[in-house]
Task: inverse folding
C-alpha cells in the first residue's frame, strides 16, 4: 500500500459506511513535545479519522491569533521541522493506519531543503501535505515533486474561488480539496454560508476528489450543519483554543490532555 492509498482508502471506507469524516488539526509541539504527542496518539480513539499536523512557523500569515499563539508556544520549546518529524516517527511506531498530513508554510520547508523534506515524509509514512502559501502557479516548487513521490498534495479553495481558478487548483491536487467555508483568518467564528451547499455541488462537478470543509467550526451544531454538505469537516483553531484555555486554568499535563480530548470526542459524536 502506498502512502497515497491510506488516505484514499479512508475516504472510501467512510463513503461505504455513509459517514462524514472528522479531520482534526493540532500544532506539532504545542504546548510541548511530550504533551503534543500524548494528544496526537489519542486522536484516533477520540473519533478523528484524519490528522492534520501543523508545522510551527514564526509568521503564519493566514492564521488567526489562536494558531499564532500555538506556533509561538511550540517554537519557544524549540520545536522545528526536525522535531515535527520526530513526533510523527514516534506516532507511527504505534499507529500505521491513521492518515496523517503535514500542514504549514513553504519557508520552513525551503530552509530544511525540499529533497530532505520529501525523504523525511516518505521515511515517516506521512500521507500528504497542505502548503497554504503556494499557489497553483508555483506547482513546480513542491507540488509536482511531492506527487511524483506518490504523496498527496492537498490544495485549498475558498468562497471567492471562481470556476476558472478552481480548475487550476484541481489540476495537480490529490487526496481531497480543503474548502474554506468562510473568508478570513483561521479561528474566525463560523457564520452560515447559505451558498455553501451550492458551491460544493459545483466543485463536485469539477472534481472527483472528496471535499473537506473547515474554518470556524466550534461546536456540535456547526459540525452537524457543515458535515452534511461535504465529505469531511476540519476542526483546528477551536481544538488549539482548548490547549490555551487549559494552560490559563493552570491544569497539569494529564488534565490538559483529557480536557482537549474530551472536547474532540464531543465534536466527533455529532457525526
Result:
Amino acid at each position: 500500500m502506498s502512502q497515497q492509498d491510506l488516505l484514499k482508502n479512508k475516504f472510501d471506507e467512510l463513503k461505504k459506511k455513509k459517514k462524514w469524516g472528522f479531520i482534526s488539526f493540532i500544532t506539532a509541539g504545542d504546548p510541548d513535545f511530550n504533551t503534543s504527542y500524548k494528544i496526537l496518539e489519542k486522536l484516533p480513539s477520540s473519533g478523528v479519522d484524519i490528522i492534520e499536523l501543523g508545522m510551527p512557523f514564526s509568521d503564519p500569515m493566514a492564521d488567526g491569533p489562536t494558531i499564532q499563539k500555538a506556533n509561538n508556544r511550540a517554537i519557544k520549546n524549540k520545536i522545528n521541522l526536525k522535531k515535527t518529524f520526530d513526533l510523527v516517527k514516534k506516532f507511527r511506531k504505534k499507529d500505521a493506519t491513521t492518515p496523517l498530513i503535514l500542514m504549514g508554510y513553504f519557508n520552513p520547508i525551503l530552509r530544511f531543503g525540499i529533497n530532505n523534506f520529501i525523504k523525511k515524509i516518505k521515511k515517516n509514512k506521512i500521507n500528504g501535505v497542505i502548503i497554504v502559501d503556494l499557489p497553483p502557479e508555483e506547482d513546480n516548487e513542491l507540488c509536482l515533486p511531492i506527487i511524483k513521490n506518490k504523496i498527496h498534495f492537498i490544495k485549498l479553495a475558498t468562497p471567492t474561488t471562481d470556476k476558472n481558478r478552481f480548475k487550476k487548483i484541481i489540476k495537480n491536487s490529490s487526496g481531497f480539496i480543503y474548502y474554506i467555508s468562510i473568508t478570513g483568518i483561521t479561528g474566525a467564528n463560523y457564520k452560515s454560508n447559505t451558498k455553501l451547499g451550492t458551491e460544493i455541488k459545483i466543485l463536485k462537478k469539477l472534481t472527483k476528489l472528496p471535499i473537506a470543509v473547515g474554518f470556524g467550526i466550534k461546536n456540535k451544531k456547526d459540525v452537524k450543519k457543515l458535515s452534511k454538505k461535504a465529505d469531511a469537516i476540519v476542526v483546528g483553531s477551536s481544538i488549539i483554543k482548548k490547549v490555551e484555555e487549559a494552560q490559563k486554568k493552570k491544569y497539569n499535563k494529564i488534565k490538559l490532555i483529557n480536557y482537549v480530548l474530551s472536547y474532540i470526542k464531543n465534536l466527533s459524536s455529532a457525526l
